[in-house]
Amino acid sequence: MGELVPGYRIVEQIGVGAHSTIHRAVRATTGKSFAIKRVVNEGADDAKFISQVEAEYQVSHAIEHPNLRHSISIHRVKRLLQIQEIRVVMEYVEGETLQDRRPANLDAFLYIFHKIAAGLQALHESGWVHADVKPNNILTGKEGLVKIIDFGQACPMGFRKERIQGTPDYIAPEQVQRAPLDQRTDVFNLGATMYWVLTEVPYPTAIRQPARPGGIDLVSEETLRTPREINELIPGPLSQLVMDCCQGNPKNRPESMKQVSSRLEVVQAHWNRRRKEALASKSGSAAAKDPAGGGPRPDSSDAPSSADPPRNATEEKDDADHPPEEPR
Fold this sequence. Notes:
Layout lengths: L7 E9 L3 E8 L5 E8 L6 H16 L8 E9 L2 E10 L4 E2 L8 H20 L2 E2 L8 E3 L5 E3 L6 E2 L16 H4 L6 H17 L7 E2 L8 E2 L8 H4 L5 H10 L11 H24 L8 E2 L4 E2 L32
Antiparallel strand pairs: 1-2, 2-3, 3-5, 4-5, 6-8, 7-10, 8-9, 11-12, 13-14
Helix pairs in contact: 2-4, 2-7, 4-6, 6-7
């Protein structure tokens, strides 16, 4: 393909969506890898995807944070005064989504979600709501890398969307109701994400995947099970945090990502104490068990003292009834 953007040599295609592709490119002057997202306007229905990628660039270019994917530049290709293509040069992130690889143990889980909360806090302090936090929009990689990606549904604080946007298994009630969105919307999305990562069971949100092409089904009331009820090894404080984040009324959720981070620190302290007690015990039956590690551990000392998040891959997955997610 050569060049999509002057000065960047295309190396390979690393992601494909319904309306976009992402290529890895090398900058000629430095040899450094970047990702180039390409969105092509092929018809009237594609105009919204052009607008979406422009909005995504606005957010991800304005904020620089180690846990948010940064956009470098945007390039518009026009014909007859109309935009036909948009190409966005972005930070190249070599990683694997939480959807594809869950954390190996509770230390890794807590490490990753601390980083996610920090990135979202920076986004909120800049006046933006992500509005689509979910496992497929979180990348982890080598050397503790954690990145939040895909800002295509981001909006200003207090914004009311004209249509329902979000991913059914993680969407907040106010998104379904088309009420104003704020940082607590991301708190809900994050809580639903933690729920799935801990249990592999989707949180029963106010909306479900389509029962028929092009349609959505609102969910009736159903009995909620806490993460600890699904897996008794999950620490009580963590299970309670997840359920508090997923409260239907935003006023009943943690007010900010700083509060979420503080409570994750409480969970870490609780878990460290459990491991210390297990190490002090002479009985093998008292050894700590790791809820995120797939069952009993032969000895609590096997649990790492710091997290080692999962490693690399790049791919794209789409939701059938929502704008395509960002190719990796």
